[in-house]
Amino acid sequence: MTTLRAACVQVNAGPEIGPNLEAAGTLVRRARDAGAELITLPENVSLIVQGRENVLARVKPEAEHPAIPVFAGLARETGAWILAGSLGILLEEGRVANRSYLFGADGSIVARYDKIHMFDVDLKGGERYRESATFRPGDRAVVADTPWARVGMTVCYDLRFPQLYRALARAGADILTVPAAFTVPTGRAHWHVLLRARAIETGCFVLAPAQTGTHDQGRLTYGHSLIVAPWGEVLADGGEEVGVVTADLDLDLVAEARGMVPALTHDRAFEGP
């Protein structure tokens, strides 16, 4: 049996990078003290600020981004693998990548993934988001190798596009990561059921570290970082408070779930309506 203790770190990021990184570092160390070998953090872990101009004033190119050496150093210090859920990375054309990073225990960047699906929505109550106004969508799915399993990387709004998760599972992913900053209305309605569905459809473990609480200009996020097993059971739920949740992942359950319902081998081509 291959077992991995994984953690979801739940944070409340603000508009200044330095304090966000300090808070994240404290929680990463707490997760490691709890025995976690793979530690995951939410989307926008180093910065949540409203408005295109405010984002552009704070983000940096990858080579200059202050969060990258911090998370690399935390990985080396703790000996854990760390998923920095996503960072805003300034690109040459003046747009931003919402980029997820996986760091190995030696501090090296093992994989990068740019969020593919942009959150452009109008919600009841007046909440309006236009992620594509600031961010450039990615165009490549990513599966990364770790000492325990293969990890398929996604970010937040990707969760609503099951074809991405199916492609990751078919490419060998055993664990899916969904770092997020989900809104409260959509979180209450859909967060748990979508994460459980992605686990069930693929036979993967799902790690979904989340932002929580009130952020810049009153933005609210849902929290409830989740760890979900391949059969759909919720192994850990972070609730609404800043903190850490952990679970032991029995990776043999991936093959067991896929053996009981081998849906990944049953795709058929069909004509559209």
Automatic annotation (TrEMBL):
Gene3D superfamilies the UniProt entry points to: Carbon-nitrogen hydrolase
Database matches in InterPro entries: C-N_Hydrolase (IPR003010), C-N_Hydrolase_sf (IPR036526), Nit1/2_C-N_Hydrolase (IPR045254), UPF0012_CS (IPR001110)
Alphabetical UniProt keywords: Hydrolase
Domain of life of the native organism: Bacteria
GO molecular function: hydrolase activity
Occurrences of domain CN hydrolase (ranges): 4-251
UniProt similarity note: Belongs to the carbon-nitrogen hydrolase superfamily. NIT1/NIT2 family.
PANTHER family with a match to the protein in the record: DEAMINATED GLUTATHIONE AMIDASE (PTHR23088:SF27), NITRILASE-RELATED (PTHR23088)
Protein name as annotated: Carbon-nitrogen hydrolase family protein
Organism whose genome encodes this protein: Azospirillum oleiclasticum
